């Protein structure tokens, strides 16, 4: 099993946060909706990781960390899907669809 020390884990977290901040800051506004869908996928991975931590927890502290990671990850994923759905609803037309009638030609 791979063991990561506290300072190495903190370093990896800070590096990932900085890289994410740089990448997200350069995304044009038109791509924010697809980016939200991608982040919902990442939150699903967080939930799976939290379940893994929860299933392998040996102490009450590890169980609490696993529980809260599953709870917060699931809430974040559900909220992300709700926001994405609302954003996509803004692009739908509010007018009813126009039906086209086709007439057969008389010979």
Descriptive report:
This protein is mainly alpha-helical and 107 residues long. The chain has a domain at 30-92. 69% of the residues lie in helices and 0% in strands. It has 3 helices and no strands. Helix 2 (32-55) runs antiparallel to helix 3. The longest helix has 30 residues, at 60-89.
What oligomeric state is this? single chain
Shape: elongated
What value does the average pLDDT take? 77
- SSE arrangement, N to C: HHH
> pLDDT below 50 for ≥5 consecutive residues: which ranges?
none
- By secondary-structure content and strand pairing, the structural class works out as mainly alpha
The percent range for helix content is 55-70%
Task: Work out the number of β strands.
Answer: 0
Short description:
By secondary structure, the chain is mainly alpha-helical.
SSE blueprint:
Blueprint (H helix, E strand, L loop, with lengths): L5 H20 L6 H24 L4 H30 L18
Brief descriptors of the model:
107 residues, mainly alpha, 69% helix
């Amino acid at each position: 099993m791979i063991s990561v020390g506290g300072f190495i884990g903190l370093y990896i977290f800070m590096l990932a946060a900085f890289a994410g901040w740089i990448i997200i800051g350069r995304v044009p506004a038109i791509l924010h909706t697809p980016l939200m869908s991608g982040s919902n996928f990442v939150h699903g991975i967080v939930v799976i990781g939290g379940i893994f931590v929860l299933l392998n927890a040996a102490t009450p502290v590890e169980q609490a960390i696993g529980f809260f990671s599953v709870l917060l990850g699931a809430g974040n994923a559900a909220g992300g899907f709700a926001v994405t759905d609302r954003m996509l609803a803004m692009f739908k037309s509010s007018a009813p669809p126009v039906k086209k009638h086709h007439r057969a030609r008389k010979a």
